[in-house]
Amino acid sequence: MDVDFESIKKTQRAGWETGDYPRVGNTLQIIAEQLVEAADVRAGQRVLDVACGQGNAAIAAARRFAEATGVDYAANLLAQGRERAAVEHLTVTFTEGDAERLPFPDESFDLVLSTVGVMFAPDHQRAADELVRVTAGGGKIALASWTPGGMIGRLFRTVGGWAPPPAGVRPATLWGSPDHLAELFGDRVEWTGLTTREYAFRYHSPEHYSQWFRRYYGPITRLAGALPGQDLDRFSEELAEVAREYNRADDGTVVAQAEYLEAVGVRRA
């Protein structure tokens, strides 16, 4: 099937530029901190954060004195990344660019990272090829990706019931499967660590979780804004139900465990 990935990315970009994604993304900073530690980043290393959003992994690397760069196609997210780095007095270069067409020469980086970012590139193979291309031989690739069977996989299936994904585009959460990584990277990357971890979403209530994602998570914000009254009420309740399903708190708040795959590998020379 011929898939118009450029049109899909144009629609995706409009989604990420809607709402205020960093309100959600900033809460995920601990995932980036853990990924950078798992990759054993060193001071002075050239580090790239792909589909960086507001710069979680790039900032985590810069805190450890790496030469950090973040790349994303959403200019508003890059602007917030620059503000965050400035507040912390960190040196991070933020560059506008497409994860499927990275604006860097071959083997430019010692470590290439992505925290729940590159997984959303619609052409999985092309994105994987780009990660390999810009990583130096013997360098590392480290990814944190939501799994198909976890809470975020469930969330995306709920959203897909209202706005089905384009035909021919594979689910983003496949990046959270070791088998899919093996398919994408083949023998070009030796995976030295494939660890399933959990991130706890913490909100006042299931309704607060639903409201926060509808207000700030761009693709959901865009969808919610297009729904008429009764449909919006149903959609809002379905989002809240996702939080209830995974919630382990018993005090009315939300502490919902979301599974992701932390993958660290070495690019073969």
TrEMBL record:
Domain Methyltransferase type: 48-142
InterPro entries xrefs: Methyltransf_11, SAM-dependent_MTases_sf
GO terms assigned for molecular function: S-adenosylmethionine-dependent methyltransferase activity
CDD domains in the record: AdoMet_MTases (cd02440)
Protein name listed in UniProt: Methyltransferase type 11 domain-containing protein
Organism: Planotetraspora silvatica
